[in-house]
Specification:
Number of strands: 4
Strand order of the largest sheet: 1-2-4-3
CATH architecture of the largest domain: 2-Layer Sandwich
Strand content: 25-35%
Radius of gyration: 26 Å
Shape: elongated
Largest sheet: 4 strands, antiparallel
Distance between the termini: 80 Å
CATH topology of the largest domain: Alpha-Beta Plaits
Number of domains: 2
Order of helices and strands: HHHHEEHEE
CATH class of the largest domain: Alpha Beta
Length: 143
């Protein structure tokens, strides 16, 4: 009796594997459709700040970097590092929470076509009262 039922085990196992694969395939198809939809949205996305200001001429990029540094200094932040890139600028700043907040608020209405791509805040090693702000700023450059 036992040996006659043993032939069912491989078929049952194969059936379970096929069900699992079918479910995985369906989940993958749904994820691919979602990624395609997000890509279409991303292709048509214009950053809000960049849309409200004219693009920056390439020769005016030093003025943009100067403006960013002055905004930080006016808010009482220390510039640790400035790394200009093509259409981006990475700044590392240190200061108190209120200074960081005011700097980020000043980025809401810049005189140039720029936007905050991303930022991170971490407490500095020297003091728990101070924060280190690493911010990546995008600049729309006139072509």
């Amino acid at each position: 009796m036992r040996t006659s039922l043993l032939w069912l085990f491989p078929g049952l196992l194969l059936g379970l594997i096929l069900l699992w694969l079918q479910g995985s395939y369906e989940r993958m198809r749904v994820l691919q459709m979602q990624v395609s939809q997000l890509q279409r949205e991303l292709d048509t996305f214009t950053p809000p700040q960049a849309a409200s200001r004219p693009p920056v001429k390439p020769e005016a990029l030093p003025q943009v970097y100067t403006w960013l540094v002055r905004q930080a200094e006016q808010q009482g932040l220390r510039l640790v590092r400035l790394e200009p890139q093509d259409a981006m600028a990475r700044l590392v700043l240190e200061g108190g929470f209120a200074s960081v907040f005011q700097f980020l608020k000043s980025m809401e209405r810049p005189p140039f076509a720029l936007w905050v791509e991303r930022y991170s805040l971490i407490p500095t090693v020297q003091s728990a009262q101070e924060l280190q702000l690493e911010i990546l700023v995008g600049v729309e450059i006139q072509r």
